[in-house]
Structure formats: C-alpha cells, structure tokens
Amino acid sequence: MPKGGRKGGHKGRARQYTSPEEIDAQLQAEKQKAREEEEQEEGGEGATGDPKKDKKSLDSDESDEDDEDYQQKRKGVEGLIDIENPNRVIQTTKKVTQLDLDGPKELSRREREEIEKQKAKERYMKMHLAGKTEQAKADLARLAIIRKQREEAARKKEEERKAKDEAAMAGKRLQSLSLNK
After folding, report:
1. Cα 15 versus chain centre, distance
2. What are phi and psi for residue 139, nearest 5 degrees?
3. Rounded mean pLDDT, 22-33
4. Which of 50, 64, 66, 104 is least enclosed, having the fewest CB within 10 Å?
C-alpha cells in the first residue's frame, strides 16, 4: 500500500483556475479596504471628514487608478521604515497625455555604440576605396606585382608561339623542298 494511503498522487487531481471576474472582485475589495484605512487615518486627525473626499471615495473605482499619488500597499515593515536610498528607482506611471512623442529620443549605450561602429565602417570603406588606408596600399602594390607577372607570362607565351610558328614554317619549307626534288 502506498505511503499516503490513497491511490494516485497529487499530480492527477483536477486543477482549479480563478476566473477573471473573481480576480477583479478581489482587487476591488483590496482597493476598498485600502481606501477605508486611509479614511480612518485621515478621520482620526479631524472630527469632521471632508465632504469632497467622501464624494471621491463614492465615485467609480477607475478614479483611484488615475491618481498619480496612488501608492501600492507596502509589505512587512516597509511601511514603518522610511528609506532614503539615492540609487532606488521609483517607478512612476505616466498618462498618455503626459507622454512626449515629438521630443528627441535618448539612445541607449548599445544603440549609440552600434551607430558609431557603422559610421566608422563606412568611413573606412570610403578611405579604402580611395586608396588611403594601409590595407588598400598593400592591395594595390600586390595588384601591381601580379600585373607585371601576367605581362611577363603573356610575353613569354607570345615568344614561344612565335618560335613554334617559325619552326612549323621552317618544317613546311623543308618538306616542300624535299618534295620538289
């Protein structure tokens, strides 16, 4: 008999998934709880509550999402301790109306280096084609040597062909003279 006393393990059980509606309801409940806690804190300072704040809390739940100073619930002792860390990046959400799409975009270091690398390569190719780089000068010198070698080889071939033609002509003359005799 298996250790658990049951047949089959936990892997064969049916999975239960939370529906999106349930998740939304849980988020709404958490927001409502956070709002009530804020009201209690504010209400403790003054006996009379501000009617504008009460009216705001009764408005739709979307109004809380639009607030810029909305802070997420802090975990553990994080809410008790104020940390002044200059390296800490505080994430701020921007509205679509606040985005500046027409302004100049800041390139990352990698993008800047990639652009610089491409420009340097283009400059080098222009100088290379103009024959101003050391590699281009070496290539041109090598080409000049090869041209000279090819010209000499062509000259030798031409001389050999002429020599063969002359020998063939001399051989034909001899044959024609021997046939005439």
Report:
1. 38
2. -65, -45
3. 94
4. 104
Is the Cβ–Cβ distance between 64 and 70 less than 8 Å? yes
134-180 vs 109-130: helix crossing angle, rounded to 10: 40
- Length of the chain equals 181
Residues 13 and 109: their CA atoms lie apart, in Å, by 51
In tens, the pLDDT along 107-147 reads: 899 999 999 999 999 999 999 989 888 989 999 999 999 99
> Which residue carries 């003279």 as its tokens?
177
The rounded distance, in Å, linking the Cα atoms of 165 and 19 is 99
Question: CA–CA separation, 117 vs 123, rounded Å?
Answer: 10
130 touches 123 (CB < 8 A): no
For 101, the token pair is 């799409």
pLDDT digits (tens, 9 = 90+) for 48-81: 545 444 444 444 444 444 444 556 666 777 667 7
How far apart are alpha carbons 5 and 16 in whole angstroms? 24
Helix (H) or strand (E) holding 42: helix 20-45
Helices 20-45 and 51-58, axial angle in degrees (round to 10): 170
> For the chain, how big is the Rg over CA atoms in Å?
45
Contact 129, 137 (CB under 8 A): no
What pTM was computed for the model?
Answer: 0.33
| Distance separating alpha carbons of residues 7 and 10, to the nearest angstrom | 10
